[in-house]
Amino acid sequence: MTPDEDLFNQIVRDYSERIYWHVRRFVNSHEDADDLVQDIFIKIWAALPSFRGESQLFTWVYRIATNEALNFVRREKVRAALRFSSLDAEMERRIDADPYFNGSAAERELSKAVARLPEKQRLVFILRYYDELPYEEMSAILGTSAGALKASYHIAQEKIRAALQHHDLSF
Asked: Are 110 and 86 in a shared domain?
């Protein structure tokens, strides 16, 4: 095996599950997340020779995964607009229809509230709340200051809190 193959196999072993769940929180569908994870690993494989180690491997992998997830969501917005429907409504429908979702009613409502957030707030919320990344690492992945990320997270929390209170749930 070449050094690139060894590194790629290590990336797949170390990050497959984390990337799946990271992407799944954006797309709210097991099938879409599965397809997207395959696309992400193809991108990683293609870009691996250009990885120069200027950032941590985790940061580099997560940046690719995040960009692919955001591109998917943007394509879905265009498709929804062409069908004259709302992407928010489509994402909520996916959450309700997902046979693999095994959370409580509160977790389902949390997922819906996250899906309704604007893209940047959703991204920051997912990275901080679900992936438990420190702001410094999020800053390296997103190229945004830690202070701006803290503000986005706080606003996202308030929006989610308000949405959950609407359903008599707490956050």
From this structure: no
